[in-house]
Write a structure and sequence with these properties.
This protein is α+β, with helices and mostly antiparallel strands and 357 residues long. Helices cover 32% and strands 22% of the residues. 35% of the residues are buried.
Length: 357
Amino acid sequence: MATQKYIAFADIPAWLEELSAAQTVYAPRREGKAVVYRPWQKGEQPELVERPTESAKHIVFPRAEELFRFNYQQAPETGGSKKLSLAEPADPAPAVVFAALPCDTRGFLFFDPVYSGSGTNGKFQDIYYLKRRACTTLITRTCRAPLATCFCNWTGGGPANREGADVLSTDVEGGLFLEALTEKGEAVLKSAALSPATEAHISAAQSSRDKAARSMGDAPDLGRTPPALISLFENLDFWREQSAGCLSCGACTYLCPTCYCFNITDESNGISGVRLRSWDACMFALFTLEASGHNPRNGRAARLRNRVGHKFSYYPGLHEGRFSCCGCGRCIKSCPSSIDIRRIVQNALAATEASRG
């Protein structure tokens, strides 16, 4: 039977201090008007009222990441030509993410087949991502009630979704009910700061999860979405209408738990330098700019078509029908033009239905 524990809200800092002795602990923190995941500081009470503005993606897939350092040195034995030496970065340190949203932890499931090479047509493994993934423990906290922008149940998730999590925590009277889901989860629940859960805790947690699930309402059937988007690929009038308000700011992709595109640059100073991987986004005009000067997606309509098409058509076609969207709603909540990806999907379904007459 999986380990089940309870901790009072007041005792959470003591537990996190214990965990931080052997690993970096990340927890939600309020900074201005935003709630972000930051390394936990001793005595700090995590922000457990407002939802995180960002996802926890950057902890496993950093915004900027060193791939290796390089140095050119004069090599007499090679006739005066320069010799290249490379130095790999140290392995990542173990980490714990406390109070991640279910949509955040589920988001890593969309990275895994791409970077592990296990998906359709997969061939290569990304050791940088896989090392961080393996040494990171994800403690998910059940959402108590959805926001108006939430739609996780549309894409197969839910307020208490367990996918991708190592521990599922749920608010009960005065604290959290904690349930281990993996071996890593079992390890972090072996703490004297935690007490055994009672039947009352278990019952209260289940009631809370059921209530949160009911509050989501009914989800529409999106089964026809992949072919609908394909059929609209060349309908630029449709995509111009959907993208009319887009500012190409990229907020939707930078806040998205499932976007995994990146750029690689060499930053050098004389004969030495570093190769960096940094986040990039298909919503930027330069993302597809070719060396010839041609850009196959030089308009907002083409870029939005690619973003929506990837999440609800191209990715499902490569990965057993799974949408590359966890329904967190951050792209809706933080869009300065109030573009709603749910509305685009529904408009696409309606347009293809109307075309059938």
